[in-house]
Amino acid sequence: MNMFRYLLRVAWQGLSNRLGYAFSVISTMSFTLGVLFCTTSLFYFLVVQPLPYDEPERLYKVEKVQIDKTGQPNVKAYGYASLIHFYENQDSFSTTGIAHYDDDVIVSHPSQPLVGMTYITPDFFTTLGTEAHLGRLFDETEKLNAYSPNAMLSYDTWTNLFNSDADIVGKTVLISGKSYTIVGVVSDSFVEPELYEVGRKTGVWLPWDFNPTPENRRTRWGDRDNPRVFIGKLKTSVTPEQATQAVTALVGRTFQEKVAAIPFYNGWSVEMELNSFRDVILGDSQLTAYLLMACALSMLLIATANISNLFLSRAFESKKEFAIAAAVGANMKQIRSGIFAEILLLLSVATALGLLFGYVGSELIKTYLHDVLPINNLGGLNWIAVVIALPVLLGLSWVLALISANVIDYGQLQASLLSSGKGTKAQVPKSVRNTLIAVQTLFVSMLVFVNTSFSLSAVNAINDSEVINTDNMIGLSLTLDRQKPITREEARAWFTQVEAELKAMPQVERVSRSMSPVSSTFGTWSLVDEASLQTVLPEAKIVDEEYFNLFGQALLQGSMFTRAQATDYERLLIINDVLAERLYPNGDAVGNRLSFDLNREASTFTIAGVVKGVKMPGAISIPPRVYRVSKGGYDFVIKFKEGHSVSRSTIKGMLNNISSRLVIYELEDLEEQKFNKLKNQYITGVMSISLTLISIALAALGLYGIISYGIQLRRSEIGVRVSIGASRKAIVIQMMRDSLVAAVVGVMVGFVLIFVFKNEFNEHVQGVIHNYWYLLGAVTALCIFIIALLSILKPLRGFFKQQPIALLRQSDN
Amino acid sequence: MNQPIIEMKGVSKVFEIDDIQTHALQSIDLVVQEGQYLSITGPSGCGKSSLLSIMGLLDAPTSGEYKIDGQSVSSLSYDAASKLRNKKIGFIFQSFNLIDEISVFDNVALPLRYSDESVSSEAMAQRVTECLELVGLGHRLNHKPNQLSGGQQQRVAIARALVANPSVLLVDEPTGNLDSKSGDQIMDILDDLNAQGRTICMVTHDARYATRAKTQLNLLDGQLSYSEVERLEAV
Fold first, then answer.
1. pLDDT tens digits, A528-560
2. Distance (Å) from the alpha carbon of A431 to chain B's nearest alpha carbon
3. Cβ burial A365-381 (10 Å sphere, 16+ → b, else e)
4. Residue A479, Cβ neighbours under 10 Å: how many?
5. Does ipTM come in above 0.90?
């Protein structure tokens, strides 16, 4: 122990004379370990941590995939009746629950907040193993068809909207004109599974019976809306494959029986999908977690290569000290222990800093990415990171010490001591030096290139000019307080007045009475072209005459809808260029007719115009779309003038002036909605840009370390060259030639590998390898060249400030 | 009358570390004539190497005036000093200071490569070969320095010092790292070079070799203790 303490002390003294070297090692490894610890924690939460439910590995979300007549999956959705039939008749799950997701306003609350409403059967909670914080969970009282008007609050709703009222049980809430008695508050420890969409939280739980599906749709077997979810806990005796077969048979049979008469579903079939909770909840995030982990491990590999290069150089530099130690009786093990002590000292500092960086990084992720990650219980730096720190530290130290010690030939140590003074002191051999630089730049160029490419692809997706423009827009959806009857005419008059008052506001540029295409989903229509009899399944939306101007969709053929056409509900369509190209590749689309049912004139529509298609945020292509004209309903999209906006309270005041029974159902910034749809791209972008910056920092540190340290080790050689008349320029050119040739070889080999990889796996790297890869490659090479140049010039500048004899003298020491 | 190659007047060198001043050289006056063979002896730390470094423009004096071939070098820039070193001075170091990773040929050719005057490849090869043959190593052109013995390496260093045909050879403890046989061989070469008219300034602590110079100086505590003493002709 005393010996090891002595070795540590000697290592400390040695390092205090090599601060640049120590800085290079510590900064490289602390950055890398920080990323590793941070990524490991995230990986743990996304991939390893058990889901917080009862027997989570047996929990499945079961989805009904409707396959169209071409054999392609078309939509995942349950018809209402189909879901109830499946829920009541399945035999593969021990417990099941169904849920219908919606949003609604708590009208009885003073702030009339819009909250997530989830309509469930009582066994939904039983299946998840949920507990109540206050009162009780739903039970037989709220079973299917019991129509008990009871409600449960989420813990957040109870604390935020009801001030943690301890006497909340028994009180009532008014939702959509109906009064519900609160029977309980869900436990604080309950983590709601994000089965419907990422970031969606339920505020109020209501019995299934009260879900907003209209009575006439509750008997449908072939619905395409998808607000409904089925969950089940698989029986222990049944495998997922067996369950898939059984439920496909059950649901498929009834689907064929019940929808056979509907022409739209002619030739369609059904397949059931059992998706584990882990896959459903974590989705693509698991892949992201694996990718991030792979990146972090690659970075560790590169950083290890970086510092092993430095350690090797250091070992060469220390050969004289090793020889002296050998001369006074040190054996190989003791010499290795000295190397190990120095490396351990450096890596201990790096690990401590790495834990600090990891902690800061985890907290940043927790703070800024909490909303875009699919888990509600995201922690900070995980204990796993701390636990792996010690073996990583010891393992790395030992491996690196072995690598460094490998350069020592014990048999030659004493001989080299005896002949010290022969030659120009210990130098890293040119071949070793060049190999180190080449390997370094090879890894660095690949990492920087791929990460930069990945970042640019993510940024491109975010800034895609084909994505719908939502600048300065909000979506406003209204509902009516129906405690007293309202006539249709009365409601229409109110909404018309709302439109007029919105348009009259000085801040408002334009108003469309349509649903926001960002927040609402498009329907799918089955239309037949009257002339060619070609059937198409375009996405469909009902819009007013302002819609296309509002979103800046240019007219390519024909004419836009007019106010008169909207008011008269004329049977007119506008299609996008994608659909026009598909149906009428060689001709004019305007005037052609598309029909739901060619036998009924009332189901046949005339194409009035063709508009430029737009991408929805996050989509990779523009699908064929069709728009039908209407004068609008409860929904508005409002575009404000540049730099203006209107507050919720102003809108609320305006509505109250028209009628106190007009309630804001939803008021949302479309930019925010767009952001929500682009979450994956933002996560990828933020992560890859962070990794790119760290890679570049590592590249800079690694290259700087190996080149500048290598040049410092050539101090005596440079002293010799200067003493025999070399000018500064000659020395700079010599050093550049020596270092850059190796760097160029490394970069070129790296690019050849990338090129081969791109050619071999072109299909798989679409979106990863940027289209302008050659330009990116040139920029990467330029970056590496600049880093290399700075690494050469920095130490040389220091040399040139001294008298030449100082270079020769210090190298003698 | 021979021209003075080196002229020093009142040259001092003071090292300052942590406010402690060490006077390595104190007001040195020295003239070295063309063709002179001069040795400087003295105990360790007396300033021998400092004097040689200043002579070779590897270090700057704290005060005093210094001329090489009549040209004042007190205020030369870094590159101008390099240029002058390349043209006028040939160094021979105690530890040889050869570059291990290049061949003997390339080591010797270095001063020609750094020269302002363009030298053709053929001329360079001829000159390098001549110099190596002069020191008996014409057959070792393609060897690396670490493939040679200490004595051979020092001979390569002598060849390198000669290759640009400098005005003066500055020699720092040339036999310090050699056995006596190799040391004698090196000294014989230096004697021969002087006999051919080369100007040599040699620093050594070995009195046996110092006496082979025609002019011997003794340096003590930074001061030349006595001026020229003609060397007795060997019997």
1. 898 888 888 899 999 999 999 999 899 999 999
2. 9
3. bbeebeebbbbeebebb
4. 18
5. no
Q: Where are the beta strands (DSSP E) in chain B?
A: 4-17, 20-33, 37-41, 63-68, 71-72, 89-92, 168-172, 199-203, 215-220, 223-226
Task: Note whether B60 contacts A803, CB cutoff 8 Å.
Answer: yes
**Cβ count near A660 (within 10 Å):** 9
Chain A positions in Cβ-Cβ contact with residue B93 (cut-off 8 Å):
808
Label residue A768 by pLDDT band (50, 70, 90). low
Query: First-to-last CA distance in chain A?
Result: 30
Which residues in chain B have Cβ-Cβ distances shorter than 8 Å to A742?
Answer: none
Report yes or no: A412 and A326 within 8 Å, Cβ to Cβ: no
Q: How far apart are CA A28 and CA A304, in angstroms?
A: 9
Give the one of B82, B110, B150 whose C-beta lies nearest to A422's C-beta: B150
Q: Which residues lie across from A813 on neighbouring strands?
A: none
Residues of chain A in contact with residue B169, where contact means CB-CB under 8 angstroms, are: none
A730 interfacial to chain B (CB closer than 8 Å)? yes
Confidence of residue A494 (pLDDT cuts 50, 70, 90): very high
pLDDT band at A39 (very low <50, low <70, confident <90, very high): confident
B79 neighbourhood in chain A, CB within 8 Å: 727-729
Q: Is the pTM of this model over 0.90?
A: no
B86/A725 touch (CB, cutoff 8 Å), yes or no: yes
Disruptive mutation site among B52, B88, B99 for chain A (greatest number of A CBs within 10 Å): B99
Chain B: give the shortest CA distance to residue A330, in Å: 26
Distance between CA atoms of residues A371 and A376, nearest Å:
8
Give yes or no for B82 touching A (CB within 8 A).
Answer: yes
Distance from C-alpha of A336 to C-alpha of A330, rounded to nearest angstrom: 10
Cα A498 from Cα B150, distance rounded (Å): 101
- Where do the DSSP E strands lie in A402-534? 473-480, 508-512, 523-524, 527-529
A724/B78 touch (CB, cutoff 8 Å), yes or no: no
Work out the number of other CB atoms within 10 angstroms of the CB of residue A131. 13
Dihedral sign from CA coordinates of A563, A567, A572, A578: positive
Which residues of chain A are within 8 Å of residue B110 when distances are taken between CB atoms?
721, 724, 726
Q: A560: burial class by Cβ within 10 Å (0-12, 13-18, 19+)?
A: middle
Could you tell me which of A621, A695, A291 has the C-alpha nearest to residue A461? A621
Residue that wins the pLDDT comparison between B194 and A191: B194
Say whether A424 and B99 touch across the interface (CB within 8 A). yes
Contact present, A64 and A248 (Cβ < 8 Å): no
CB–CB of A604/A594 below 8 Å?
Answer: yes
Residue A386 three-state SS: helix
Encoding tokens for residue B165? Answer: 């045909």
**pLDDT recorded at residue B123:** 93
Average pLDDT over residues A149-170: 95
CB A517 within 8 A of CB A622: no
Per the DSSP assignment, residues forming a β-bridge with A477 are A635, A666
Residues 6+ apart with CB under 8 A from A681: A458, A461, A462, A618
Residues in chain B: 235
Q: Do A720 and B59 touch (CB under 8 A)?
A: no
The tens digit of pLDDT for each residue in A65-75 reads 888 877 878 77
Which residue reads 């440079």 in tokens? A718
User: Is the confidence at residue A427, as pLDDT, over 80?
Assistant: no
Taking CB atoms and an 8 Å cutoff, what residues of chain B touch A727? 79, 82-83, 114
Does B143 contact chain A (CB < 8 Å)? no
Chain B partners of A812 at a C-beta cutoff of 8 Å? 95
Q: Give the minimum alpha-carbon distance from A373 to chain B in angstroms, rounded to a whole number.
A: 56
Token duo for residue A93: 């799950």
Amino acid letter, residue A454: F
